Structures are given as structure tokens and as C-alpha cells.
Amino acid sequence: MTFVTSSLEGFIHWILMMADKIRIISPPEAKDRLRELLEEIKRNM
Fold first, then answer.
1. Alpha-carbon span 40 to 35, nearest angstrom
2. What values do phi and psi take at 19, rounded to 5?
3. Would 3 be classed as within a structural domain?
4. What is the average per-residue pLDDT within 20-45?
5. Do the beta carbons of residue 23 and residue 2 sit within 8 Å?
6. Which residues are CB-contacts of 8 (< 8 A; sequence separation ≥ 6)?
7. Does the structure show a pLDDT above 90 at 28?
8. Whether 19 contacts 40, CB under 8 Å
9. Which of 6, 12, 27, 43 is the most buried (most CB within 10 A)?
10. DSSP string covering 1-45, please?
11. How many folded domains does the chain comprise?
12. Is 13 a member of any domain?
């Protein structure tokens, strides 16, 4: 599935709803940002 967005941050927050069922292939920035956000969540648990 392909998504076009002008807001990487908005996309990442939306994708969190399905994070256990998806895999981001590209762009690398999206993969990196999701990883960072998941680490932030982990630290706050």
C-alpha cells in the first residue's frame, strides 16, 4: 500500500494505531522517526 502525505509527523502518529501490523519500507526518515517515537514511548512507560 502506498501513502502520499505532506506531514511525516502526522503520518507517523497515525501509523502508531497499526504499528504491530505494518512495516514501513520507505522513506528511511519515516522508519527512523517511528523508531524514535517508540523509544520515547518505551522510556515513558
1. 9
2. -55, -30
3. no
4. 92
5. no
6. 29, 30, 33
7. yes
8. no
9. 12
10. -----S-HHHHHHHHGGGTTT----S-HHHHHHHHHHHHHHHHH-
11. 1
12. yes
Task: List the domain range (segments joined by +) for residue 21.
Answer: 8-44
> Residue 24: inside a domain, yes or no?
yes
- Pick left, alpha or beta for residue 28 (phi over 0 → left; psi -120 to 50 → alpha; otherwise beta): alpha
Kindly state the cell numbers that stand for 41. 514511548
Distance separating the N- and C-terminal Cα atoms of the chain:
31
Task: Give me the pLDDT at residue 41, please.
Answer: 93
* Residue 14 forms part of a structural domain: yes
Report how far apart, in Å, the C-alpha atoms of 9 and of each of 20, 29 are. 18, 10
C-alpha cell at 10: 502526522
